[in-house]
Write a structure and sequence with these properties.
The protein has no helices and eleven strands. It is mainly beta. The chain is globular, with a radius of gyration of 13 Å. A hairpin with a 6-residue loop joins strand 9 and strand 10. The chain starts with a strand and ends with a strand. Strands 2, 4, 5, 6, 9, 10 and 11 form a seven-stranded mixed beta sheet that branches. The protein is 0% helix and 50% strand.
């Protein structure tokens, strides 16, 4: 069973930065598509950023220019660098791993990010 463990959430003031990490012991991390999703209170889960095995990335319009997704295949870890945070970024952030061919999705338990003055 693949396990994903997120870390790095917390409370930050508007304009501040946080870096989320998601680590796994899965041997197929390097070929898997990794993504960050978030769910704000009362809202549906939304896609924040994606990075595929080759390093190509894509972002939600709401975070373009502020968030950066990256991966370190040697450490089986994906990151989300979040800069210029806004109150509307407050949410539980979830790491997702999509395995090629099977299409199986795995999820972390989430890490809470609160942007507040």
């Amino acid at each position: 069973q693949v396990q994903l463990e997120e870390s790095g959430g917390g409370v930050v003031q508007p304009g501040g930065s946080l870096r989320l990490s998601c680590a796994t012991s899965s041997s197929i991390f390097s070929i898997s598509r990794m993504a960050w999703y978030r769910r704000a209170p009362g809202d549906q889960r939304e896609l924040v950023a994606i990075i595929n095995g080759g390093g190509s990335t894509n972002y939600a319009d709401s975070v373009k220019g502020r968030f950066t997704i990256s991966r370190d295949n040697a450490k089986n870890t994906v990151y989300l660098q979040m800069n210029n945070l806004k109150p509307e970024d407050t949410a539980v952030y979830y790491c997702n791993m999509n395995v090629p061919i099977s299409g199986t999705n795995y999820w972390g338990k989430g890490t809470l990010v609160t942007v507040s003055s």
